[in-house]
Each structure stands twice: as C-alpha cells, then as structure tokens.
User: What shape does this take?
Amino acid sequence: MEQLAKLLLWQLLLQQSSVVYLYSVPADASNPDSVVVSVLNISATRGSQAVLPCKSYRMVWTQDRLNDRQRVVHWDVYSTYYGDNKMERLCDMYSAGNQRVYSSYNQGRILMPQNAFTDGNFSLVIKDVAESDAGVYSCNLHHHYCHLYETVKIQLDITKKAKAAKEYWDGEKAVIVALEGSTVMLPCVNRNHIWTERHSEEEQQVVHWDRQPPGVPHDRADRLIDLYASGERRSYGPLFIRQKMNITDTAFALGDFSLRISELENADEGTYSCHLHHHYCGLHERRIYQVFVTEPVREKKVVNLTTHNTAPAIDPNVVRGHNVINVIIPESRIHFFQQLGYVLATLLLFVVLLIIVVFITRKRRQRGYEYNVKKYGEKDVNLKEFTVDTTDLTQYKSEDIRLDYKNNILKEKAEQARSFPAKNIDLDKDFRKEYCK
Ligand SMILES: *[C@@H]1O[C@H](CO)[C@@H](O)[C@H](O)[C@H]1NC(C)=O
Ligand SMILES: *[C@@H]1O[C@H](CO)[C@@H](O)[C@H](O)[C@H]1NC(C)=O
Ligand SMILES: *[C@@H]1O[C@H](CO)[C@@H](O)[C@H](O)[C@H]1NC(C)=O
Ligand SMILES: *[C@@H]1O[C@H](CO)[C@@H](O)[C@H](O)[C@H]1NC(C)=O
Assistant: This one.
C-alpha cells in the first residue's frame, strides 16, 4: 500500500517534469547565416489561432524530374531600325538541349557557345553585322527551379567607319559600336554555380521553424519543425506542441510555410523564426515574429431563451417546438474550467493518498491492540491457574478447621490413625492387656 502511494507520487512528479524537459530540443546551430527579411510583432488573444506568415515563391519546389535545372538562356533584341519599335527573340538554349535560332536569316550567322551551361559563357557572336542589327540586346538567364532571373543589356551600334568602332559604358549598359560587316561578340558571362552546376534537389531545400521562449537567446532556440522538399517532415517536442503548431502539407507546392498556432496560451509567447534555406539557389532568409498573447475581451455570459412562439423558423433543419437555449461561455471561462479541472484532479489524487496513509496507520494501530490483548489473555490463564491452586488450599484449610472443631483426642486419634494405623491398634491391645492383668 505504501509502495503504491510512493509510485503514484513519482508518476505525478514525472508527468510534470516531462513537460519541461521534452520541450527543449535544441535548434541546429550550424545553420549558415541567414538574411533577416522581417521582424514583426504579432499579438493575438488567448484561445485564438495565430498565423505567422512565411512565404517565398522562390521556395516552391518545381519537381524537376528531368534532373535538368530548367535553366534557360535567351537573347532578345529591341530594335528601332525599321521605324517601329519591336522586340525579337533571337535565340535560346536549355541547359540540357540544343540552341534554337528563331529566324532563318540568322541561322548560322549568330551563335552561342555550345558549352554555355558548363562554362558560364553565354556570349552571343554575330557574324557579318549589318545596319539592321543595331539595337539593344539582352542576355536573359532564367532559372525556373530557383526562380531567378538575370538580364544583361548591351547596345549595339553599327558604323561604316573603322575608326569609330569602340566599346564603352554609358552608365546603364555596355555600348558596342561595331564596323559593318565585321564579327561582334556581345559578352554575357555568369559563372555563378547556380547557372553551371547540378545538385541533388531535395536535401538542399529546407524550412525550419524555431521558437525562443522569452529571455532565451537565438542560439538556444527550440526547433519546432524541419520540412524538406522531398516531403520529409520532422516535428520536435511533445505531441501537444506538434499538434498545436503546424504548417500545411502543400507548403512546398505553394511556397507557403506559415506557422499556425492554435488555441494560443500565455506559454506560447516568445520569438518565433522561420528559416528558408535553398542551398542550391543560395537563398537563406529568416523571418522573425515576436508573439504576444493578450487577454480576450471579457464577454458577459449570455443566456438566450427563445420560446417556440417567437423563434423564427428560418432553418428547416432546426427541430420546431423546442425551447432553444444558447449559453455562451467566454473563452476565458473555458480556460478557467480547464485549470479548475486540473486542480481538482490533483486534489483528488492527494485525498486518495491521504486515505491510503490513514488506512495504513489505522491498520498498524489495530495490530498493536491485538498484541496487547493476547498478553492479557496469557496473564488471565496464569491467574486462573493461581485461583485453582488457592481453592485447593482452602479445601485443605477447611478440612483442617473441621478437624480443629473435633475433640482433641479424636484429632490425635485421627492423626495417629492416619500416620500409624496398624501400630496404634497394636499399642491399644498391649495397653489393654497390661491393664487387664
Ligand atoms: C515589438 O515589441 C517590442 C517589445 O514590446 C518593442 O520593443 C519593439 O519596438 C516592437 N517592434 C515593433 C516593430 O513594433
Ligand atoms: C566567351 O565566348 C566567346 C565566344 O566563344 C569568346 O570569344 C570569349 O572570349 C569568351 N569569354 C570568356 C570570358 O571566356
Ligand atoms: C501537421 O499537419 C500535417 C498536414 O496538415 C499533418 O499530416 C500532420 O499530422 C500534422 N502534425 C501533427 C502532429 O498534428
Ligand atoms: C437570441 O436568439 C435568437 C435566435 O435564436 C436571435 O434572433 C437573437 O438575436 C438572440 N438574442 C441575443 C441577445 O443574442
């Protein structure tokens, strides 16, 4: 019984401490430095749901199953030569494909290096330039997977004088003045690994949510969620935290990694941060939210009593002829009742323990009485034995007294008879014989 009580107490203590210790899963400190994109204060009422937004279109996973990064380069020209302004696509090339030259006129006349996506040299070569080639050229690099777009603009002017041929920077773009009929090279070099390398996709794209309770520095933050583009999802901490704080399943499909915290409590206050890492695309962003929980506005308990006479039958699903009682309890009350429930449950447990303890002590004391009674009983037996002895004695005594009442001679006779019966007779005979003589 005593052991059971101890066990119960231990269990109670363990339950309370587990809540504290399971919560402190450390966040990975080895994250590369992220750019803090935003710091926001968010306050929400207790019991409500808070949404901490964290969205980035660049984190959308395009599931490039071809293992081709969907990198593409295209050269366009903005020309005013024919009087009207027009934009024309000259050529393009995919990272895992051949280059396409759009007009037949340019076929064989303009070209890009075939190894552009391994070398990072996307420069355009135009042979036999004509006056009609004048215009603003743009080298466009698109990385569909990383949602990156880069453009380099170069202005090409044609001159008929060899002396006038030159290259300069006009403050916005490079300007090349080329001699008519010559071969020009419009430079577009980008050796950033994003444009030249291949990586394994899934491991490179990860989203973390961290939480710092008030007063805890960022390097000791608790990790809440890790989410990988491959679909792997890791949640940390006790189950109630995992159920309470979650991000949607479609996060990588929509680029929405917003954290939803349901049933806000005061204990949920703290600093939350969303880390978006796209290692391949070089994206490292951090969004910070300070969450404050405010007391809900005190609602008055509303008891709405409506008799069936006055109740308007708007909803056909509602059963008619019943009194409708709407009882609205403010959420703070619900919280209060929860707390009360906890307190009562704990109290009940202690009462049970107390009863057990009282029971044990009572049992012990009872055992003590029995022991004493047994001793008494033994003594009684002794006393009985003694009384038996004394009665015997009195019997003897009363006999003696009876003997005293009798004649002394008789007594003597009796004594003599008792001690020497045969001899007495002999002596008597002898005495009589002597007397008769
Ligand atoms: C957020 O709240 C903190 C503490 O109350 C305050 O110091 C800070 O100025 C607030 N920041 C913003 C952006 O409101
Ligand atoms: C890029 O390629 C063009 C054409 O092949 C070449 O003329 C140029 O030197 C290259 N540039 C670099 C920086 O390698
Ligand atoms: C979090 O949300 C996802 C998708 O909505 C769900 O599959 C998962 O079970 C949730 N996690 C917990 C611990 O409730
Ligand atoms: C009471 O309930 C009725 C319908 O059930 C509604 O029309 C009315 O507005 C309610 N009154 C209050 C004070 O909530």
